[in-house]
């Protein structure tokens, strides 16, 4: 899972912990902390440990991907809207005709 590597390193440095100290507190290897701070990649369990040790919510450490407008999909409801209105009117007319017929109109 992608996390903010620079945020991890900054929080660790604020506490004046070495990578080894953080690894020990999280119950992971030194190599894991080095990879997290370098590549921004971590398993869910590692992220949970980091959150517990840093006392921060998970959202503070995760990278939220940003979508540019070219990745957005345009939703066109013109035709669907007309079809929905048509179906509703048809249903009302049919329902009214059935009620009229059943009540002996």
TrEMBL record:
InterPro entries: Cro/C1-type_HTH, Lambda_DNA-bd_dom_sf
Keywords per UniProt: Membrane, Transmembrane, Transmembrane helix
Keyword Transmembrane: yes
Claim: Amino-acid biosynthesis is one of the keywords in the record: no
Domain HTH cro/C1-type: 8-61
TM segment ranges: 81-103
Gene3D superfamilies cross-referenced by the UniProt entry: lambda repressor-like DNA-binding domains
Top-level taxon of the source organism: Bacteria
Cross-referenced PROSITE patterns: HTH_CROC1 (PS50943)
GO molecular function, one term: DNA binding
Name the UniProt record assigns to this protein: Helix-turn-helix
Species whose genome carries this gene: Marisediminitalea aggregata
């Amino acid at each position: 899972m992608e996390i903010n590597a620079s945020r991890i390193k900054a929080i660790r440095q604020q506490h004046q912990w070495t990578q080894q100290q953080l690894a020990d507190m999280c119950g992971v290897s030194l190599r894991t902390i080095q990879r997290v701070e370098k590549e921004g990649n971590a398993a869910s369990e590692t992220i949970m440990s980091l959150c517990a040790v840093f006392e921060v919510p998970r959202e503070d450490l995760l990278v939220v991907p940003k979508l540019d407008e070219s990745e957005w999909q345009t939703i066109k409801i013109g035709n669907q809207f007309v079809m929905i209105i048509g179906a509703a009117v048809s249903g009302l007319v049919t329902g009214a005709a059935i009620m009229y017929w059943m009540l002996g109109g």
